[in-house]
Amino acid sequence: MRAHRVMWFLAGAVTMAMYLLGPHVIIRNAYDTAQGLSLWFGSL
User: Fold this and answer.
1) Could you list the residue ranges that cross the membrane (predicted)?
2) SS3 per-residue string spanning 4-33
């Protein structure tokens, strides 16, 4: 159940970031963001 809540939180955070920053920033930083998320998931 905890993982499900984390997924919803991440989805909301990504949506908020896209709304605030704009798509061009997301696309430019997508690779770094994915790398950071994979590191974060690895540390869980």
Assistant:
1) 6-27
2) HHHHHHHHHHHHHHHHHHCHHHHHHHHHHH
